[in-house]
Write a structure and sequence with these properties.
- With 209 residues, this protein is α/β, with parallel strands linked by helices.
- The chain is built from nine helices and six strands, in the order ααβαβαβαααααβββ.
- The radius of gyration is 18 Å and the shape is globular.
- The protein starts with a helix and ends in a 6-residue tail after the last strand.
- Bound molecules: zinc ion (ZN).
- The site of zinc ion has 7 residues, from α5.
């Protein structure tokens, strides 16, 4: 907690006064253009990676960046937040971003880790298809290769899950909403995006293009 309070002191002293106009402009409301869905992992900080100011990203963070499928009976906060983003905020893009060294995906591949956390096990059960895929396609691969495949596959599947919700599918159909599956390597500081034509992840250009 000491780090948080020291950080707050720096924010009050240095950051807020320098950006007072920005914060005052936010009083008029938020108009974020992107819903960014990623993992709760403390090493994934969307506004840092994208260098965006408050008011830019509407965010969902949960263990493993999972999105319950439509009608799965797991609607809860994640689906309600998607609904609000699409229907009220009218975001133009939804990003589902997995990341390197994801503990949720490690646990998905090694369920023995989940014996003492039954709620996490129940939550990750939604991603069981990704585990089945990795076991079938990469059964003999290294742990690192299996984890990378699981994280990237999971990002794609969760993006498909986003699109199972009729309000999302309708907005995509109208051309008002675009969907993106990303992968973030936090050790190298690099973002990858899934090319929907090939289902392969390609490094995002870092020249602003
Ligand atoms: Zn994670």
């Amino acid at each position: 907690m000491k780090k948080l309070l020291e950080g707050y002191a720096r924010f009050r002293r240095d950051i807020f006064p320098a950006q007072r106009e920005l914060f005052e402009s936010l009083a008029a409301g938020q108009q974020p253009e992107t819903l960014f869905i990623t993992c709760s992992d403390s090493r994934v900080v969307p506004s840092l990676i994208t260098q965006t100011v408050p008011g830019t990203l509407f965010q969902i963070q949960n263990a493993g960046n999972l999105v319950p499928r439509y009608g799965a009976g797991l609607s809860g906060g994640t689906v309600a937040t998607i609904e609000y983003a699409v229907m009220v905020l009218r975001v133009r893009d939804i990003v589902v971003c997995g990341h390197s060294d994801c503990g949720a995906m490690k646990a998905l591949l090694d369920p023995d880790q989940l014996t003492e956390v039954p709620q996490v096990a129940a939550w990750l059960a939604q991603a069981h298809g990704t585990r089945t895929f990795v076991e079938a396609e990469l059964g003999d691969a290294s742990t690192e290769a299996r984890l990378l495949a699981a994280v990237q596959r999971n990002a794609r599947v969760q993006l498909e899950n986003v699109c199972t919700h009729p309000l999302v599918a309708a907005a995509v159909e109208r051309g008002e909403l675009r969907l993106h599956a990303w992968y973030y390597d936090f050790v190298r500081g690099v973002l990858w995006a899934c090319n929907p034509a090939t289902n392969e992840f390609e490094q995002l250009p870092d020249d602003g293009g």
